[in-house]
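Bug #77: duplicate submission created two jobs. Keeping one. Sequence:
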Amino acid sequence: MTAEPTTPFTSVNPADPSDVVTEIAAPGAVAAAAAVDRARAAAPGWAGAGAAARSAALAAVASAVEAAAGELAALAVRETGKPLAEARAETARTAAIWRYYAQAPYEAAGTVHEPAGGPGLLLTRRRPHGVAGLITPWNFPFAIPSWKAAPALAVGNTVVLKPAPEATACALRLAELVRAAVPDGVFTVVPGGAVEGGAVVASADVVSFTGSTAVGSAVARTATARGVPVQAETGGLNAAIVLPDADIERAAAHIAAAIAGYAGQKCTATSRVIAVGSALDPLREALAEALRALPAGDPADPATVCGPLISGRARDRFEQALSGVSVLATGSAAEGPGWYAAPALAEKVPDGHRLLTEEVFAPVAALLPADDLQHAVRLSNAVPYGLVTSVHTAGLEAVLHGLDHLDTGMIRINAPSTGADFHVPFGGTKASSHGPREQGRAALDFYTSSRTYTLAP
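Kept job's structure:
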């Protein structure tokens, strides 16, 4: 077979685009499909290795991540512009994810039932699919690949990971740590773009994707047409609802961090702030002040909360999103060659404006008034996405109403919309998610299929 011509691509530092982190040739579709074939050849041996071997391997990865934590955090800062404090937290979380799933190989793999027709055995057993094809974004370059790969490996699948080009160096470094603990072919990184990602989706036995809505929809269609299990996490347009009885200062601090932390480049970031009744005026003032006070600048500075956007194109999209609205407050932006943007709070946003219909993925939110809690819930639900809503209140009634009527996969009470626990299901409704949930025990179910066995005497 003739080798495909390769196209080089670069990953650069968002805080200094002249700093090239890595330059690599995309291998092409044929090479990506060949990586899946090698993973498929390794799958029977890995699945048959036994619980103790798989558990030890995942625990070894956790220890390797812990040992390299400082290096990994610095690489995430350099390649993705993630503020250092968040990068350190992500590396700690990554190690915890691998250690959590290191126990999963010992989980019960099925159940025994009483046969309906008399003597015999009736049982179910969950088995790995084969090769897990993982497509991951750049914003959590270690945690998201890990919370997909660790459960897939724990239950006996092999893994082919296609990371976002902007996080190539992070993915390759993670692969070095994982490959040191598992047999050849069990974990492979295929760098590149849409061509390589498409080849992985077209050949893997189970597919997990995190990224944009448009690409996620295409991935889901392709995998579904092939008849393979697929999940796609595709973003949010998340609301924070603040009631008059809330601790306004505390709510403002939480919301400001959820708007501008990591320059708003999280699918769980707050994009809309809904102030109920008399909460509007004090919240407007407190939130504007909190945004202005938020530390912004060099992501390598441990104090920085809001660093650069991932690219010049992302900054252009942010600036375009502020067109046609009244900007109530702006924070500070660092000076320098990076793609920095000042966090912004907009009000008097007209119906149909992109701030109310699209995920901008930048440090900006719209402030919206609501007459009462019911009105706030309607505003929260009136978008194409349904990932997470935060509700800020001192009363139980609002919490119960939110749990009953908010159309989002996750509801966080008196906490920022950002943040997720890796041992419980993660996902949303509507355009935010397709297929089963990620993380926790839900991930173990997704990466396996159930077999029913009838043993007659």
